Amino acid sequence: MASMQVSIQPFAKGWIQNHLVIMFYIYLLKSTSTGRFYIGYTQDLKRRWSEHSQGKVYSTRRFTPWKLVYYEAYPNKAQAQLREKKLKQYGSSYTGLLKRLGYK
């Protein structure tokens, strides 16, 4: 299985016609120690990934370090939360994503 490098630049903020655009992200992390996956959403992907990797998040600290393997950007919080919810149901959306990424 090939390893994927994910660039996390520039992220959370961009400028479009002199207006600040805030994006929301869903992300998939993989524990490099156990192979477990974690799905979440955030407004600041770089900061959140760092928090997971440094063991600052209660639900993921036992499985550090984490590697960011995938993310999607959404223009509003509701869409990002809906996608996160769909993936956390661990149905066809989740399975399909893992297949596309080469993990299944």
Describe how the helices and strands are arranged.
Layout: E1 13-16, E2 19-22, E3 24-31, E4 37-42, H1 45-53, E5 66-74, H2 77-88, H3 92-100
Antiparallel strand pairs: 1-2, 3-4, 3-5
Note down, in words, how this protein is organized.
With 104 residues, this protein is an alpha+beta fold. The chain has a single domain, classed as GIY-YIG endonuclease (3-Layer(aba) Sandwich), CATH 3.40.1440. Helix content is 29%, strand content 30%. It contains 3 helices and 5 strands, in the order E-E-E-E-H-E-H-H. The strands form 2 sheets. The protein has a 3-stranded antiparallel β-sheet. Strand 1 and strand 2 form a beta hairpin. It is globular.
Largest sheet: 3 strands, antiparallel
Instruction: Please tell me the total number of domains.
Output: 1
- Average per-residue pLDDT, rounded, comes to 86
Q: Give the overall shape, derived from the CA principal axes.
A: globular
CATH architectural grouping: 3-Layer(aba) Sandwich
Distance between the ends: 10 Å
What is the total tally of β strands? 5
Which structural class do you get from the secondary structure elements? Answer: alpha+beta
Main attributes?
104 residues, alpha+beta, GIY-YIG endonuclease, 3-stranded antiparallel beta sheet, two-stranded antiparallel sheet, 3 helices, 29% helix, 30% strand
